[in-house]
Design brief:
The complex is a heterodimer. Chain A is elongated and about 55 Å long. Helix content of chain A is about 70%, strand content about 0%. By secondary structure, chain A is an all-alpha fold. Chain A is built from 9 helices and no strands. By secondary structure, chain B is mainly α. Chain B has 10 helices and no strands. In chain B, helix 2 runs antiparallel to helix 4, helix 2 runs antiparallel to helix 7 and helix 5 crosses helix 9. The two termini of chain B are about 20 Å apart. The chains are: A mainly alpha, B mainly alpha.
Chain lengths: ~180, ~210
C-alpha cells in the first residue's frame, strides 16, 4: 500500500471508531514509516524497540489525533518526542558502530519526511555536539572511545552530549 | 521490549476500542469554564470594584486588565492545542502578546523612576497582597490546563509548562484585578503583572513533570 496521507488519515479515522481491520493495516504502514524515519538516527539493534515504543505511544494516545488535521505530522511529533526520550535515556550498551549498509538510501525521503527529518534537527547543533551525540548516543561508542576519536577530553564529551541533547530538546520545542 | 513487531500489532489490534477524540474545542470549553469559575469566585469573595462598573477607573486599569485577559486567553488557547501532537510553532503568538504586555511594566519603570516615585511603587503596602491573590486565583486555570494536557499528549513539555503559567497568571491576575481599587500605572504595571512572570517561571519548572507521558 502507498503510505499517502489521505489513506493513513482515513485508516486512523476508522481506527478511532473501533475498526480493527483498518487499525491493523494502519499499524503495519506506521511500522514501515517509523522504521524509515528512525533508520538513520538510532543503532540498528535499537530500531525495533524504538519503533515499538512509538507504536505503543500512538495506541495509548490515539484519541489525541484530530481527524480535521493531517495524520503524518501527528505521528512524526510523537516519534520525535520518543526519539529524544530515547537519546536521553541511559540505554547505552556496547554496540557496534553503524556502517554504510545500515543507512537508508538518501533518495527515499519524500518532501514531508524531509521536513520532519531528525537530521535537520541534528544539523542545527554545533559540530562538536553533533559529533559526540552521533558517536555516543547513536553509534554506541563509550565516552572514552568518542573522546579518542574526536580529540575532546572525556569531560568535554560528556558536557557536549549533555548540552547537545538540551539544545535538541529546545529545537523540538521551537519546532512544535 | 521483547515482542516482535507483528505480535505487538496483533496485541494492539486486539486491544482496540472505539474512543472519543480529545478535541481542542472541548479543552477550550473546559478552560473557559475554569476562567468563569475564577471570575465568579472573585465576585463572590471580593466583589467587583465600583470603578469598573461605573467606568470611572483609569485608562491604565482597563488597558492592563484588557491585555492580561488577552494574554491569558491566547496562552490558554495555545496550551489546549498543544495537547494534540503537531508540527508547527504555535507558541509564537503568546510570545508577541507577552512582549506587548511587557510594555506596561517597562513604561511604568521608566516614568515612575523619572518622577522619583519608584520607591513608592515598590513599597506599596497593597502590592504584595495583590500579586499573591492574582497567583492564587490563577491556580484554577492552571489546574484545568494541566488536567487537559494530561489527557492529551503534549510533545513540548517545557513550552507547554511555561505557557500554562502565562495563562494561569494572566487569567488569575485579570480576574482578581476586577476587584482591586488601585488603578495607578505603577501599581497595575508592577503588582498585577508579577503573577504572570512568577507563574510562567513556576510553570516552566513544575508543570513538565506533571504532564510527561
Amino acid at each position: 500500500m502507498q503510505q499517502d496521507e489521505p489513506t493513513l488519515a482515513g485508516l486512523m479515522a476508522a481506527a478511532q471508531m473501533g475498526d480493527r481491520a483498518a487499525y491493523r493495516t494502519l499499524l503495519k504502514e506506521v511500522q514501515r514509516w517509523l522504521e524509515r524515519y528512525f533508520r538513520r538516527r538510532v543503532a540498528p539493534q535499537q530500531l525495533d524497540d524504538l519503533v515499538q515504543e512509538v507504536m505503543l505511544a500512538m495506541h495509548n494516545k490515539r484519541a489525541t489525533w484530530d481527524s480535521s488535521r493531517a495524520f503524518l505530522p501527528w505521528l512524526a511529533a510523537i516519534a520525535r518526542y520518543r526519539w529524544l526520550d530515547h537519546l536521553r535515556g541511559h540505554y547505552r550498551a556496547p554496540e557496534k558502530p553503524l556502517d554504510d549498509a545500515d543507512y537508508a538510501a538518501p533518495g527515499e525521503e519524500d518532501a514531508l519526511h524531509a521536513r520532519l527529518s531528525l537530521d535537520r534537527l541534528l544539523a542545527q547543533l554545533p559540530d562538536k555536539q553533533r559529533s559526540v551525540i552521533d558517536l555516543v548516543k547513536i553509534s554506541g561508542l563509550s565516552v572514552a572511545e568518542a573522546a579518542a576519536r574526536t580529540g575532546q577530553s572525556e569531560s568535554l564529551v560528556k558536557i557536549n552530549v549533555h548540552r547537545g541533547l538540551k539544545r535538541l530538546t529546545s529545537l523540538v520545542e521551537k519546532a512544535n | 521490549m521483547k515482542k516482535t513487531n507483528q505480535s505487538l500489532i496483533d496485541d494492539l489490534t486486539e486491544d482496540l476500542q472505539p474512543i472519543h477524540p480529545v478535541l481542542p474545542r472541548q479543552g477550550l470549553l473546559w478552560v473557559a469554564a475554569a476562567a468563569l469559575a475564577t471570575l465568579v469566585l472573585v465576585v463572590l469573595l471580593l466583589g467587583v470594584w465600583e470603578g469598573v462598573t461605573s467606568g470611572r477607573a483609569s485608562a491604565f486599569f482597563f488597558i492592563t486588565n484588557g491585555m492580561l485577559a488577552a494574554l491569558g486567553g491566547g496562552a490558554a488557547w495555545t496550551v489546549v492545542h498543544m495537547a494534540n501532537p503537531q508540527v508547527g510553532n504555535s507558541a509564537r503568538p503568546t510570545l508577541w502578546s507577552t512582549l506587548l504586555l511587557a510594555i506596561i511594566p517597562a513604561s511604568a519603570i521608566i516614568t515612575e523612576t523619572a518622577h522619583g516615585r519608584m520607591d513608592e511603587v515598590i513599597t506599596d503596602v497593597h502590592g504584595f497582597a495583590c500579586a499573591m491573590q492574582g497567583i492564587a486565583f490563577g491556580m484554577i486555570t492552571a489546574g484545568a490546563l494541566i488536567f487537559w494536557l494530561r489527557r492529551g499528549a503534549p510533545v513540548s513539555l517545557v513550552a507547554a509548562g511555561t505557557l500554562t503559567g502565562f495563562a494561569a497568571g494572566a487569567i488569575g491576575s485579570f480576574a482578581y484585578g476586577l476587584s482591586c481599587p488601585f488603578d495607578s500605572l505603577g501599581h497595575l504595571a508592577i503588582w498585577h503583572c508579577i503573577p504572570v512572570g512568577f507563574c510562567a517561571l513556576a510553570g516552566r519548572f513544575a508543570v513538565p513533570k506533571l504532564i510527561r507521558w
